[in-house]
Prior knowledge:
46% helix, alpha+beta, 16% strand
Amino acid sequence: MFDFMGMMGKVKEAQAKIKEAQAKLVHLTAEGESGAGLVKVFVNGERKILKIQMDDSLLNPQDKEMLTDLIAAATNKAMEAIEQKIKTEMKAATEGMIPSIPGMDLGNLFG
């Protein structure tokens, strides 16, 4: 017989763990770089840019277009890295809470 109350208890427990894990995401950080490290972008788990570092050699007005391309590339790499960290953190927080259903990918549930 299906234990509806037990299932609801597990849902509430999972919600609490997800909320707790989401609160910790602000402390996650990731870095992306481009131009062999000439530009570095740091982001947090809330997908916000924390800092951009660039080598002084790039601060030439003639290289403005290249610099914007490097910043965009580094930002994209940092965002990809933080997405992986967020998925890992959320998966760990909900481990064993959400049943694995064959053919159903719940990997994008949290991001």
